[in-house]
Specification:
alpha+beta; 9 helices; 4 strands; rod-shaped
């Protein structure tokens, strides 16, 4: 009979530990994924900003030396990430590929112009910077027109600000939720041993002596849960990097490593603090209060 009871208690204890580990792992995993989003939010935003193109249309009378000088100037400019010269013949081929028809069969000649596409660095994709670039280049006589999607730039910058705000807000909220959930799981695990805590206290054990094994066990569970969460984060990050290599999510290993270390330490810290508070609460309770 005693052996059956012992096995039952052992299974119950293992189940309790398992639920705590799973709770910690899931919460830290979701928090870590949100952290990956926060860490890479600027990189993702910069990627989309750098897709904005400023197109400089050239007169047919533009000399090759003038075009070469302009390209060199643009390449050396601090705001420029890359440039691409598109001849009128290339532009016609691109339009033909997009529409599936050769428009020159209808008009009889190529009305398109030679152009230079300029891709800007993300920090310079603002309406003010683009207006300044336009004014700077507009005085060159061989440039006929300079165009860019002004509305798209404004909309993109507004959305980046909104998304950044909400991501940071959600991160703060989710961090609080994570702490509360892990704390709740730890408190339930300690609650199941409240009579053991009080018995040890009644036979003369000090609070530090009683608390130590509970804290040690909870930290162990926190470490296991954090490791499981980090494994999940690593898998997610690996597949995201394979799917979106242009985002270069692993380009800054120090930042990613710091996030992983932070999640690990957070799991250990939360379990330690939660266990300390939970055991302290039951140590301070009177015996008759343990039944409520």
């Amino acid at each position: 009979m005693s052996s059956s009871f012992d096995r039952y208690q052992k299974r119950k204890l293992i189940t309790s530990y398992f639920s705590v580990v799973i709770s910690i792992a899931l919460v830290l995993f979701l928090l870590g994924c949100l952290g990956l989003l926060v860490v890479n939010a600027k990189k993702v935003a910069d990627h989309f900003r750098e897709q904005v193109v400023v197109t400089i249309y050239l007169n047919d009378s533009a000399k090759q030396v003038e075009i070469d000088q302009l390209e060199n100037t643009l390449v050396m400019a601090e705001y420029s990430k890359s440039t691409e010269y598109v001849s009128k013949e290339q532009a016609a081929e691109l339009m033909k590929a997009e529409t599936g028809e050769d428009f020159m069969d209808f008009v009889g000649y190529n009305p398109l112009q030679n152009s230079i596409d300029v891709y800007l660095k993300a920090d310079f994709v603002t309406n003010e910077t683009l207006d300044g670039i336009t004014e700077e280049l507009a005085n060159k006589k061989f440039i006929e027109d300079i165009t860019y999607d002004n509305d798209l730039v404004e909309l993109m910058n507004d959305n980046v600000k909104k998304i950044t705000f909400w991501v940071l807000l959600l991160s703060a909220i989710f961090t609080v939720i994570a702490v509360l959930l892990i704390n709740s799981s730890i408190r339930l695990a300690v609650y199941s041993k409240r009579f053991i805590i009080k018995t040890m206290q009644m036979v003369g054990a000090t609070k530090t002596f009683i608390r130590r094994p509970f804290v040690f066990k909870s930290v162990q569970l926190g470490v296991i849960g954090a490791i499981l969460a980090l494994i999940g984060m690593g898998i997610v990050l690996y597949y995201l990097d394979l799917t979106f290599p242009e985002l270069e999510l692993l380009q800054n290993p120090v930042l990613v490593g710091s996030l992983f270390v932070g999640i690990f330490l957070l799991g250990v810290l939360i379990t330690w603090i939660s266990t300390f508070i939970a055991t302290q609460r039951f140590l301070n309770l009177k015996t008759d209060q343990l039944y409520y």
